[in-house]
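ESCALATION

Customer reports they have been waiting on this structure for their group meeting. Please prioritize. Original submission:
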Amino acid sequence: MNHVRFVPCCLALLTAGWCCTASAEQPIFDEMPRWKGGWGFQVLEEYRTESRLLDGDEPVGDGLTEEVHLLHVQGVYTWSKELRATLKVPVVLHAERQVLDGTDVRRETDRGLGDPTVALPLKSYFNLDGRTGSWTFAPQVRIPGGVSDGYDIYDRVWGAGASVGYSTETYNYHFGASSSTWIYADGDEPLEVSYHMDVGLNLHGLGSSGYLKWKTSVQHDTDSSLTVSAGPVAYWRFTDTVHGQVLYRHDFYDRQKPGLDHGDGDSFRVGVGFVF
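Update from on-call: job pushed to the front of the queue and completed.
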């Protein structure tokens, strides 16, 4: 195994929207591997609860919730530090939502394979006096997944996207900003545009390193939906091979597309990654 020459970037790209929208962050935690022939995989478990049914930004009724339990299996191969390929496969372990059926409340469920995403992140690194950083351009393709058991939390259509990002850090601090866009083959699906910013601290101790950061995201779709979410994320390098991350995010503002949809959510994610 190649020795990991790792300087932790304190912040990476935030997911655009929530679990149904492909994350701008790439395996392994958008950090590595940066050496020729390096590869790795990570497994992330995510829980998401949306607490209200919305008509635009107006609540229709509290207590009408949507709960989603996801497993993300993701991998990366690096040809060089400038060029890598990633694959992200989501699995819906269980999803359940409450919707209005006239004056009654109906429960709907979903389970099965989500929509995999293939990306080709291209990076350009720079080194300055006491500061390093990188520019990133990542074209991506969304592939329709399997048939769900009930209602669908994924689009099930072909999609093409791209993200651009900038990050810079010192020994102690980091700043990052990015934007991403998705367009779908089905003309009924809206164009998705999101903006991300992150600020945080690099952590050093116990013979290892990690980070603690605050991630903020704004997602706007052409169907007039708008979500502003933010929260902390912590990462630690346990060994050169084993890495872990914990993330929490809250929707501070949520306006859904015209009609009824769930919003005002909270999500929690924990994951472990392995690099070789």
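Sent to customer with the following note: Residues 80 and 196 are 26 Å apart (CA to CA).
Escalation resolved.
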